[in-house]
Amino acid sequence: MDRAMSEAPVVKVSGLRKRFGAGPLVLDGIDLEVARGEFVSFIGPSGCGKSTLLRLIAGLTPASEGSITVEGLAPEQARKRMFFVFQDANLMPWRRVAENVELPLLLRGDAPAPRRERVARMLEIVGLAGAEAKFPWQLSGGMKMRVSIARALSVAPEILLLDEPIGALDEMTRDRLNEDLLAIRSRDPFTGFFVTHAVAEAVFLSSRIVVLGANPGRVTAVIEVPFAYPRQPELRETPPFLRLLATTAQALRAVRVA
Questions:
Q1: pLDDT of the residue at 43
Q2: How far apart are CA 39 and CA 208, in angstroms?
Q3: Using CA atoms, how far apart are residues 197 and 57, in angstroms rounded to an integer?
Q4: For the residues of 164-197, what is the DSSP string, one character each?
Q5: How are beta strands 65-70 and 11-19 bridged, if at all?
Q6: Residue 72 exposure: Cα atoms within 13 Å on the Cβ side
Q7: What is the C-alpha to C-alpha distance for residues 30 and 54, in angstroms, rounded to an integer?
Q8: CB 138: neighbour CB atoms within 10 A?
């Protein structure tokens, strides 16, 4: 997937500024265009507004100045095309795995048979076939996030926004889930926005990496990631990957020093 997939940007951010109440600016002068099928990661120091930017794109909080459009619409008008995955899996503890994944389809009014078929397919894709009847308390952290991602993808969103969904997991589990996420995306394409503190994670997943500086948050660098999809785990060990990892880490260090 590359940026030439769509002539018009699916998401356009222009002159975006955000402050909460009478407080200081959190984001200032954000300009960004994202084509259909891209996977864009936001990295930067804590407090630079990464999660706030994600929420603005999702229409969960309003901009103070500037504009955001999603397929030419205001974000709040385009919510049906998007799904947000939070840092916590946010599973309903009284609902079994299949019932958690089914919930968006139930709320949308899908008929029972198509719902069950879709849930089964999503659980198979995320490697949880056979876990349908388990409760969240019976799952590991990684399994809970798989359920959360399956739930998000059950409605086939055009845009998936992920706010550090696997940040609390160990490195091995994170790597596996990142690989799974790209495998899912190859089967059910979506435009992705991803907030992370992990540089290697951003390089492995992304078509572009947006580096944000802090106080207030501004775009300080945009790094193109040239590796073709699908990406294999071995990519992480190649010299081109390691060089881009160093370049991205340097861009992030420059923000922290400034």
A1: 96
A2: 7
A3: 19
A4: STTTTS-HHHHHHHHHHHHHHHHHS--EEEEE-S
A5: antiparallel
A6: 2
A7: 12
A8: 12
CA 179, CA 205: separation in Å to the nearest integer?
Answer: 8
3-257 CATH, one of 3.40.440.10, 3.30.420.10, 3.20.10.10, 3.40.50.300: 3.40.50.300
pLDDT of 236 higher than 50: yes
What is residue 239's predicted lDDT score, i.e. its pLDDT?
97
Calculate the CA 53 to chain-centre distance: 12
**Encoding tokens for residue 219?**
């775009």
Q: How confident is the model at residue 5 (pLDDT cuts 50, 70, 90)?
A: very low
Domain parsing of the chain, residue ranges: 3-257
Number of H helices, E strands in the chain: 7, 9
Q: Which amino acid is at 60?
A: L
Quote the distance between the C-alpha of residue 220 and its chain's center: 20
Tokens of 96: 């079994």
Tens of pLDDT, residue by residue over 126-160, are 888 899 999 999 998 888 888 988 898 888 889 99
Strand partners, 41: 194, 209
State the pairing for strand pair 218-224/191-195: unpaired
Q: One-letter amino acid identity for 188? A: D
Mean pLDDT of the chain: 90
Burial class (CB in 10 A: 0-12, 13-18, 19+), 80: exposed
